[in-house]
Amino acid sequence: MFKLSASFVALVALIPFAAGQAQEWGQCGGIGWTGPTTCVAGTSCQVLNSYYSQCLPGAASTPPTSTPPVSTPPTSTPPGGAPPSSATGLNAIAKSKGKLYFGSATDNPELTDTAYVKILSDNTMFGQITPGNSMKWDATEPARGQFSWTGADQIANLAKGNGQLLRGHNCVWYSQLPSWVSSGNFDSATLTSIIQTHCSTLVGRYKGEVYSWDVVNEPFNDDGTWRTDVFYNTLGTNYVNIALQAARTADPAAKLYINDYNIEGPSAKTTSMMNLVKSLKAANVPLDGIGLQGHFIVGELPQGIEDNLRAFTALGVEVAITELDIRMTLPSTAALLAQQSKDYQTVISACQAVEGCVGVTIWDYTDKYSWVPQTFSGQGAACPWDQNLVEKPAFQGIVNGFNS
Ligand code: 9MR
């Protein structure tokens, strides 16, 4: 049975209450929001989507509203529903088709590229951004108790200024983890405290600004066994619980996700992730979503993405495609680009078809700044925009996917 609608009912039953005034750029409403619903002078509360209203500079173009309509959670298009969108920006199209956002990852070094930033900042194109690196542990707590926010703040402020949702990425991950954590030989009580401090400080800093957090990233090996990192080796599976609890306390309104790759279709890893969702839900551990990263190869998509997304949502979580890119062996050819366009369309249409798939994030929008060539020798061209920031056939594939 499909259970997500029950959780939406629970969500919309939460009645927001006023608690002072939100600051400029602060959140002022949205499903599940329990903070302030009015804005400081000179700003007005604008509904960006059903989950997020924000205090934006200037007077309201529509009457200030404390909360968005809560009776219409994001849903996919009903069968035979909305006609193809005439909007041209991918986020505008996604929203017109009932999704919460279409977004992109970005990274700090790229933000000096004005042509790049201009496209990234167009919130009809991208309604959400994810920092590719600057909220990770090595960037935010490079030494124990010493927090560093320069890069993370830059991207959080960019999202605010652009009126874009922010996905936080991430609290606990085996990679880009400073050696003071991975090689500290801490006992379980100390490592618990270290996780709690890190997650609550990180999530707390952006309280009210983040739509969803990848609280735990990549906990499983591809064979479905737990990844034996310092967290698992010291605390067993309980580290997941510890991180999620700390994040919930630090920002009760943020959606808390576990995020992984190779869980987009049926696999041993997918089964393990579904079992984890079930056990966390059964234990009342706070968990709202599963992120399916979506790092794919042209012509090699897993079968059954739509059914798989639906199977996750049936466990009572929302889902999102969080890091989509579809790489190829270089050089790119017309045939490869055409197949890539079809593959983007397949992934987007799977999310479009599933109630509870809230949005799609591409892992940067341009080949100019993709992570792929540095990691996979001889491969690349994975993004919908090319090296020169020109849209590729994949762009139309995304449009077609939302219109399917
Ligand atoms: O895009 C990120 C890249 O710049 C980093 O070098 C890399 C290091 O691990 O991480 C990349 O992002 C990863 C993300 O955080 C988690 N899923 C896989 C992504 C691609 O490696």
From TrEMBL:
<feature type="compositionally biased region" description="Pro residues">
    <location>
        <begin position="65"/>
        <end position="82"/>
    </location>
</feature>
<keyword id="KW-0119">Carbohydrate metabolism</keyword>
<comment type="pathway">
    <text>Glycan degradation; xylan degradation.</text>
</comment>
<comment type="similarity">
    <text>Belongs to the glycosyl hydrolase 10 (cellulase F) family.</text>
</comment>
<feature type="active site" description="Nucleophile">
    <location>
        <position position="323"/>
    </location>
</feature>
<dbReference type="InterPro" id="IPR044846">
    <property type="entry name" value="GH10"/>
</dbReference>
<keyword id="KW-0378">Hydrolase</keyword>
<dbReference type="InterPro" id="IPR017853">
    <property type="entry name" value="GH"/>
</dbReference>
<feature type="signal peptide">
    <location>
        <begin position="1"/>
        <end position="22"/>
    </location>
</feature>
<protein>
    <recommendedName>
        <fullName>Beta-xylanase</fullName>
        <ecNumber>3.2.1.8</ecNumber>
    </recommendedName>
</protein>
<keyword id="KW-0732">Signal</keyword>
<dbReference type="Pfam" id="PF00734">
    <property type="entry name" value="CBM_1"/>
</dbReference>
<feature type="domain" description="CBM1">
    <location>
        <begin position="20"/>
        <end position="56"/>
    </location>
</feature>
<dbReference type="GO" id="GO:0045493">
    <property type="term" value="P:xylan catabolic process"/>
</dbReference>
<feature type="domain" description="GH10">
    <location>
        <begin position="84"/>
        <end position="401"/>
    </location>
</feature>
<dbReference type="InterPro" id="IPR001000">
    <property type="entry name" value="GH10_dom"/>
</dbReference>
<dbReference type="GO" id="GO:0030248">
    <property type="term" value="F:cellulose binding"/>
</dbReference>
<keyword id="KW-0624">Polysaccharide degradation</keyword>
<dbReference type="GO" id="GO:0005576">
    <property type="term" value="C:extracellular region"/>
</dbReference>
<dbReference type="GO" id="GO:0031176">
    <property type="term" value="F:endo-1,4-beta-xylanase activity"/>
</dbReference>
<keyword id="KW-0964">Secreted</keyword>
<feature type="region of interest" description="Disordered">
    <location>
        <begin position="62"/>
        <end position="89"/>
    </location>
</feature>
<keyword id="KW-0858">Xylan degradation</keyword>
<dbReference type="InterPro" id="IPR031158">
    <property type="entry name" value="GH10_AS"/>
</dbReference>
<dbReference type="InterPro" id="IPR000254">
    <property type="entry name" value="CBD"/>
</dbReference>
<dbReference type="InterPro" id="IPR035971">
    <property type="entry name" value="CBD_sf"/>
</dbReference>
<keyword id="KW-0326">Glycosidase</keyword>
<dbReference type="Pfam" id="PF00331">
    <property type="entry name" value="Glyco_hydro_10"/>
</dbReference>
